[in-house]
Every structure is written in structure tokens, then in C-alpha cells.
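From the methods appendix. Each design record in this collection lists the discretized structure first, followed by the designed amino acid sequence. Records were kept in a plain field format so they could be parsed without special tools. The example shown here is representative of the layout used throughout.

RECORD:
C-ALPHA CELLS (758 positions):
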């Protein structure tokens, strides 16, 4: 039979059991032994579910307490020396400090995993970085799975991708120069796994899906020649884009198989199938590992049958990528509309789909005719269902007039109109929007949703939290306050709940980073805004202060990128539908007197295609969608946007074309490195670089913020410079939040005094 395997499965637990256990451990409410018990039970349930669906090779190494890239760095002994930890004897508290920082060291940087919303810990590479294998944790999980009777396939990030994803921390040092030191460590690791009885291992090299230069591609060839005699059979994993341009390389490598993503790049299947050697495994991912929609099983089986005819059992089947990016189990969803639910498949259901495909390839379609009939019915219903298709929304997008996405005047005129009424000081201060989501806030929201708290009492509770948030900002003397978003559960989910075309789950959580999980909305149909979404709360907050209150919205690209998006129309059309819905909100905020409005687009960089050839097309419609969201706003209305950790150097013209009056970016973990590009480009509008890292609970020292702010002043004209934290403060506690902002304000006032004295 054709082997059914996968490279990863959701690791947080069906109801976020790992999140709560890890956070309890951080607080001292759970012991390490208790945390390990929770982790072992999650792994046991995951493996049992996979095996029950018919999986032949179960993943090991996909589980992590924080991040699998960080786990690999620990296994290879490549943790930053600045922490002073013994990599060979790293404790669990020390492991978490690498990711979260401590009293003396800032956390390791993190950024998005390719074009997903998952954050990985960024390796820190130095010329003197050394590698020393310590595989005890990985080996323990291998023994654990074997003791439960499973055939396994460990999954690791490959050496070339690992180097490529890291950052060089020394001047004139190239990451790739570490390859000769890294490869022997990898080879040793593979031999140690072979000694544990590991037969197959998947080594993921998604670098092959990106536009890496020839030196990096040559490094792939070098690496796998080094691994040819390590005692394990290797399958190289690729995903998120086509790797057809590397067909000849992948055929020639001394490995035993390759996995390709035929959801994101269906066109590559025929290229590989026509030329693939019959003695090597070709693993084909035709079940979408990154979305929630049922597969069309008839099409999947029909597509795979000719490949099976050529390759026989050397055709393997798998999800397109790790199921880490999918919610865990649709079966626990009790409140979803039954019709919409019938169109969906979460991780557990995707396993079942793969089991059906495996059965059909072995015994024919008739052996699974009931499953295929149900799949066909769901596909037919989605194509015509009135819950999905709204003619008025489609017409609004189709009939946009020329120039509909342009502001009334250029920035140079707008900023004068804005400053005339805002009268801001030099180095104006603000925050990114959210303030601590306390236990009281969460309890009130939960009670309200359960019907245990009346609407009037919930309204009063939220207003109390907003009033406290504004009071804190008044005392701090922040120039542009926010209302703190007490009423919001998530920056995407909150808006999705109020937009037509969205639906929501109870337990559709996915990991964003560490213990941070998000429950993405699901865009199933055409999107519109039935009623105002934020005007009530922002207007109330404005009554509490004479300072200009900033309204907070989530931008169109982020709204679809951080949702599970429909796959039956182009993304560009989805983005424009959302943009026009947001534009209705912007104009209503403006009418209500909220004339500073932030439209966050933290996902605009991560949503870019991996292939540069597709960038221009994407950026054209993505930036148009952002502009559409503020079209018609008066010149005196100041539009802000915020973007998370990203490399902006190569897309700065597009970022500038968004024409936001103020852009805030995360820069503290990179020591303002990201800001340099904005200075070199001479970014024309205002910029607010983050001056401290909100992902760590530590309170920055004044000298640290001053160092970052002075670096910013060196590259951005001071009259264009804002001061703000790196990101929203939702995950922090009030005590540390106030202390952090106090330091930020102390430094800002000091520098204002210096500038005034000149």
C-alpha cells in the first residue's frame, strides 16, 4: 500500500492544555513533573489519533514546549553564549528564558515562519558559533513513541534552512560559512537516531521553496552528500511553493525521497511525476495542511492514480505541510452552523481524508464510495450556496471608480492639517493599541457570552476597564492615547464576529508562538459590515480625555491572512471586500470625532508569495486594499498603521505606497536594524519604531531605550519620529506595563529637553 505519513500535528492540545500547563509552570503553580505529564498525554493522544486514521509513519520531534526551531538549536548546542547557559545541561527554565528573556538578557528574536502566522525563534549566528549534539530530549520522545508501539519518522528542520533562517550577529560574517561546522553535528545526530532504531527521517528544507541564491542551493547538495551514510533513510520536505526549478537537484541527491506541496503549487505534480525516478519516494501533499476546507476527494484520488501507476508504493501521501497550522478537531465544535461545518475539515478530519485516499488507492473508489459521495456533496453545495454568495458585495468591488483608493491630498498637505489641530510635541508618544487583558476582563467576557452577565453589566465592566486605561495614559502623559481594547478578544476575531461572511469556532485554536494561541475566524463567504463595530467604545474613551483618542482597526490583508480564508475566489477579491467594509467603519469613526485611526497591517509582509516573481502582483492589490480602507477620509484625519517583525528592505516602495500618515514597526529586538532601511530609503511619512520589546515581561532600563531612540534619531528626521512600544500590550500585566511605559516616557522627555535646548 501507499505510505500515509505526516510531518507534524497540533501540539497545544484539543483545548489548549499545553498552553495552560506551560503558563502555570511559569507562574510556579505547576511543577516541571506536572508539566511533563501534560505534554506526554498530548503526545499519546496525538499519536493514537494518527494511527487510528491509518497513518503508517508518525512524526516525532514535532512536539515542543515553545518552538521546534529553538528545540533544534538546543539539540545542536547552538544557543547564544550571551545567556551563559550550559547547552549540554540546559534546564527547562533556562530553555524558556532563551525565548522570553530574563533580568539580564533580552529574548532571542522571533519572526514569522515563511508566509504563515507561526513565529519561530531566530537563530543567532556568530563566527565562533560551535555545535555539540545533545539529543536526549528527542531520543526520549522516540523511545516514548516506540514504547507505545508506533512506527515513527522524526522531523527536523534541515541544516541549510536553519542557517538561512538565522541572523548573522558579527560584521562581515556570512551565515553559510558555518556549514562545514554544522554538517558534522547533523550527521552525528542522524547516526544517534539510527542507533535508536530510526529508519526514516524527514528533514525539511523549505528554503528550496524560496528564492535563495545559488550558494544556498549548492549548500543543499553539499549537505545531503554528507548525510549519505548516516544509517537513516532521508526524505526531504518542501512546502508552501513550487520546487520544480530544483527537480534535477532533488532527483540527483543521495536521499530516499522528497515531499512536495501540491496544494500551494499543484502545477508541480505533473513535472515531478513525469520525471521522478521509480526507485525513490515521491511524497505528494494534496490535503491542505493550512486551511479548514474539506478536500474534494474524487479530484485528489483521480490526480494520484496516474502517479501511483508509475511509482507504485513509492508514491507516499501526506498533508501539504505540517498540520501544526490547522485547528485540531472539528468534532468538538458544537455551535457552528451545521451547513457551514459540513464544508470543513480540521487536523483530525484531514487524517481521515488521507486514510480514505490511502484506501482508495489500494482498493479502488468503490471501497470508499460513501466518503467520496459526502465529499462531492459538500463541494457542490459550496459552489452555489446563498450563505456564501452576495451579489451586492461583488458588485461594489467590481464597480469601484478609478482612483477610489487615493486620499484627497498628498501627505505633505495632510500632515499640516493634522498638526494644526493635534498640536503634538516633538517625539510624540503613543502605544500600538491593546492594554492588558486582565483576568477580570476575560471573566466578564466569558460570563457575558454564557449569558451569566447582562449586556448592561458587561457594558459597565468594559467602560470601567477603559476608564482605568485612559486614566493610566493621562498620568503617563502619552500624547495619543488608546482605549485599550478591553472589549476585544482578538484583533481579527473581534472584527470577524461583526462582519457578514465570517463564522467562528469554539476550539479552533492554533499556535502563534510559545503559549500564545489564536483562534482564527473563518471567511466562508462574501464580506460586508452590517453595523458599526468600534465607534461606541472609541467615542466613550474620547469623552474621558482631551487628547486625541486613537481608534483601532485591523487591516484587510491581516483580516484574511490571520483568518482561515475561503479558497474559491482570488485573495485579491477577498481583500477588497474587507477593505470596503473597513472603510465604512473609518468614515463612521471620523463622523463621531475620532480623527486618529490606526489600521493595523502586521501581516502584509508575511502574506507575500515566497517567489519574488509574484511579489509585484500581490503588493499592487494588497496596498490598494489598504488604501481603500481609508478612502474618503479628510486630510485632517490621521491614518496610522502597524507592522510586526518583518524584513522591509525589499518592499519599501510598496510600504510607502500605502500612504499611511504614521507607520509603527517592531524594531527593538533587532537593535533598530530594521529602521535603517527606512532611513536609507528616505521614507516620506512619519515613523514610530518600537523602543522596547513587549514580548518579554522584563522592564527595560532607561539606557536601553535611550540607546534605541538615539539610533532612530540618527536615521529618521526627528520631526518625522514617533515613540512607542514594539507591539500591543495585551499579553502583559498592568504593573510591568506601567513600569515599562514610565521608562519610555522618562527617556522621551529627556530627549525632548535636549532638543529644545539646541
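DESIGN:
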Amino acid at each position: 500500500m501507499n505510505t500515509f505519513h505526516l510531518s507534524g500535528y497540533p501540539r497545544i492540545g484539543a483545548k489548549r492544555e499545553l498552553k495552560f500547563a506551560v503558563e502555570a509552570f511559569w507562574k510556579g503553580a505547576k511543577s516541571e513533573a506536572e508539566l511533563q505529564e501534560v505534554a506526554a498525554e498530548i503526545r499519546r493522544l496525538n499519536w493514537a489519533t494518527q494511527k487510528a486514521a491509518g497513518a503508517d509513519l508518525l512524526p516525532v520531534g514535532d512536539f515542543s514546549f515553545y518552538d521546534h526551531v529553538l528545540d533544534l538549536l538546543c539539540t545542536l548546542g547552538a544557543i547564544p553564549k550571551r545567556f551563559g547557559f550550559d547547552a549540554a545541561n540546559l534546564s527547562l527554565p533556562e530553555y524558556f528564558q532563551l525565548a522570553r528573556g530574563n533580568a539580564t538578557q533580552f529574548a532571542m528574536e522571533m519572526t514569522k515562519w515563511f508566509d504563515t502566522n507561526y513565529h519561530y525563534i531566530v537563530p543567532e549566528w556568530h563566527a565562533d558559533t560551535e555545535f555539540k549534539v545533545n539529543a536526549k530530549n528527542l531520543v526520549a520522545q522516540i523511545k516514548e513513541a516506540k514504547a507505545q508501539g508506533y512506527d515513527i519518522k522524526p522531523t527536523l528542520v534541515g541544516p541549510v534552512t536553519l542557517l538561512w533562517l538565522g541572523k548573522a550577529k558579527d560584521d562581515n560574517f556570512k551565515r553559510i560559512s558555518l556549514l562545514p561546522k554544522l554538517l558534522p553535528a547533523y550527521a552525528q545526530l542522524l547516526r544517534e537516531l539510527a542507533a535508536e532504531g530510526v529508519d526514516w527521517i524527514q528533514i525539511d528544507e523549505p528554503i528550496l521553496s524560496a528564492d535563495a541564491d545559488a550558494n544556498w542551493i549548492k549548500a543543499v547538495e553539499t549537505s545531503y552528500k554528507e548525510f549519505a551514510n548516516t544509517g537513516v533513510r532521508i526524505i526531504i520536505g518542501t512546502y508552501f511553493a513550487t520546487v520544480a526549478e530544483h527537480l534535477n537537484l532533488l532527483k540527483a541527491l543521495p536521499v530516499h525521497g522528497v515531499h512536495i506541496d501540491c496544494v500551494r503549487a499543484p502545477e508541480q505534480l505533473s513535472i515531478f511525476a513525469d520525471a521522478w525516478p521509480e526507485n525513490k519516494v515521491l511524497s505528494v501533499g494534496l490535503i491542505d495542511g493550512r486551511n479548514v476546507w474539506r478536500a474534494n476527494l474524487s479530484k485528489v484520488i483521480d490526480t494520484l492514480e496516474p502517479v501511483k501507476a508509475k511509482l507504485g508504493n513509492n508514491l507516499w501521501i501526506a498533508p501539504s505541510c505540517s498540520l501544526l497550522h490547522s485547528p485540531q478537531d472539528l468534532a468538538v465544535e458544537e455551535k457552528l452552523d451545521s451547513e457551514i461545518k459540513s464544508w470543513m475539515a480540521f487536523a483530525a478530519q484531514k487524517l481521515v481524508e488521507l486514510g480514505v485516499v490511502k484506501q482508495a488507492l489500494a482498493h479502488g473508489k468503490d471501497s470508499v464510495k460513501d466518503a467520496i459521495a459526502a465529499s462531492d456533496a459538500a463541494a457542490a453545495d459550496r459552489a452555489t450556496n446563498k450563505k456564501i454568495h452576495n451579489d451586492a458585495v461583488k458588485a461594489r468591488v467590481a464597480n469601484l471608480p478609478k482612483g477610489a483608493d487615493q486620499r484627497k491630498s498628498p501627505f505633505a498637505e495632510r500632515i499640516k492639517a493634522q498638526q494644526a489641530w493635534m498640536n503634538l510635541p516633538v517625539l510624540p508618544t503613543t502605544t500600538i493599541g491593546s492594554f492588558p487583558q486582565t483576568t477580570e476582563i476575560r471573566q466578564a467576557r466569558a460570563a457575558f457570552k454564557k449569558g451569566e452577565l447582562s449586556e448592561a453589566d458587561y457594558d459597565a465592566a468594559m467602560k470601567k476597564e477603559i476608564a482605568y486605561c485612559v486614566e493610566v495614559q493621562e498620568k503617563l502623559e502619552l500624547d495619543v492615547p488608546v482605549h485599550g481594547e478591553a472589549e476585544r478578544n482578538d484583533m481579527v476575531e473581534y472584527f470577524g464576529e461583526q462582519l457578514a461572511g465570517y463564522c467562528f469556532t469554539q476550539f479552533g485554536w492554533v499556535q502563534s508562538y510559545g503559549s500564545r494561541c489564536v483562534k482564527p475566524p473563518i471567511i466562508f463567504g462574501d464580506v460586508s459590515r452590517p453595523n458599526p463595530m468600534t465607534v461606541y467604545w472609541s467615542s466613550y474613551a474620547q469623552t474621558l480625555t482631551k487628547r486625541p483618542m486613537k481608534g483601532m482597526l485591523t487591516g484587510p490583508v491581516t483580516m484574511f491572512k490571520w483568518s482561515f480564508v475561503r479558497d474559491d475566489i482570488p485573495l485579491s477579491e477577498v481583500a477588497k471586500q474587507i477593505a470596503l467594509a473597513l472603510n465604512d467603519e473609518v468614515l463612521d469613526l471620523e463622523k463621531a470625532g475620532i480623527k486618529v485611526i490606526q489600521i493595523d497591517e502586521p501581516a502584509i509582509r508575511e502574506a507575500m508569495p515566497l517567489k519574488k516573481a509574484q511579489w509585484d502582483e500581490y503588493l499592487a492589490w494588497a496596498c490598494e486594499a489598504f488604501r481603500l480602507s481609508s478612502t474618503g477620509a479628510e486630510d485632517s484625519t490621521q491614518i496610522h498603521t502597524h507592522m510586526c517583525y518583518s524584513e522591509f528592505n525589499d518592499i519599501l516602495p510598496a510600504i510607502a505606497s500605502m500612504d499611511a500618515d504614521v507607520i509603527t514597526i517592531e524594531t527593538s529586538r533587532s537593535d533598530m536594524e530594521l529602521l535603517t532601511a527606512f532611513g536609507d530609503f528616505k521614507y516620506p511619512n512619519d515613523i514610530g519604531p518600537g523602543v522596547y520589546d513587549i514580548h518579554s515581561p522584563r522592564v527595560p532600563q532607561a539606557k536601553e531605550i535611550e540607546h534605541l531612540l538615539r539610533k532612530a534619531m540618527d536615521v529618521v528626521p526627528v520631526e518625522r519620529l514617533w515613540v512607542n512600544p514594539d507591539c500591543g500590550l495585551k499579553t502583559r500585566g498592568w504593573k510591568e506595563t506601567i513600569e515599562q511605559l514610565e521608562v519610555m516616557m522618562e527617556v522621551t522627555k529627556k530627549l525632548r529637553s535636549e532638543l529644545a535646548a539646541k
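APPENDIX NOTE: The mean pLDDT is 95.
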